[in-house]
Specification:
The complex is a heterodimer of chains A (about 110) and B (about 120).
Chain A lengths: L4 E3 L2 E4 L5 E6 L6 E8 L3 E9 L2 E5 L6 E5 L5 E5 L8 E8 L7 E2 L3 E5 L1
Parallel strand pairs in A: 2-11
Antiparallel strand pairs in A: 1-3, 3-8, 4-5, 4-9, 5-6, 7-8, 9-10, 9-11
Chain B lengths: L2 E3 L4 E5 L4 E3 L2 E3 L5 E7 L5 E7 L5 E3 L5 E5 L4 E6 L8 E8 L10 E3 L3 E6 L1
The chains are: A mainly beta (about 110), B mainly beta (about 120).
Chain lengths: ~110, ~120
Amino acid sequence: KAGVTQTPRYLIKTRGQQVTLSCSPISGHRSVSWYQQTPGQGLQFLFEYFSETQRNKGNFPGRFSGRQFSNSRSEMNVSTLELGDSALYLCASSPDSYYEQYFGPGTRLTVT
Amino acid sequence: AQSVAQPEDQVNVAEGNPLTVKCTYSVSGNPYLFWYVQYPNRGLQFLLKYITGDNLVKGSYGFEAEFNKSQTSFHLKKPSALVSDSALYFCAVRVPGASGNTGKLIFGQGTTLQVKP
């Protein structure tokens, strides 16, 4: 099976802009989770979607949002970008919550 | 509060020697524990998990981990380290939601493993 794919791999945006990141899970996986990775804060959970419903949310401001489509593909959106949003954004999929998560390569977002 | 601690920022070991990367956790209820490895500019790769059963769990690439409930620890081990094992290692615990279903993982800060020839 193909692994988790994320597009784009690299992105440079200006402060105040918005950005949309995409994630395609492993075929058959219905749970998709998003994480932010930074040197200072490490890996932090953003949200999880299962069957198009947000099932859990981390402690991030409302500027961070996401959605999941009927084919389990997911997108996350960050509006009004701030310099501190520069990070590696990782998407992970699993068949359901009780299984291990498989991570994509990430999208490296740089906000200038 | 749910948390995971990796007390060592870096572990240095000579190739061929055994290695241990430490992890302790704090979570209510029965823990679901995981180890992941991250190579530079890559996503996380799953190594192994503990859900229930034997306290010694075997995983990918010759790694294993020992679950110790009384010490709330889940240390990663390998009998003989390889230079190619050099990477960033993360311990994680799944946080149960109100309904029991949640994909939320809490990660430790990570431990850099350096294996020298």
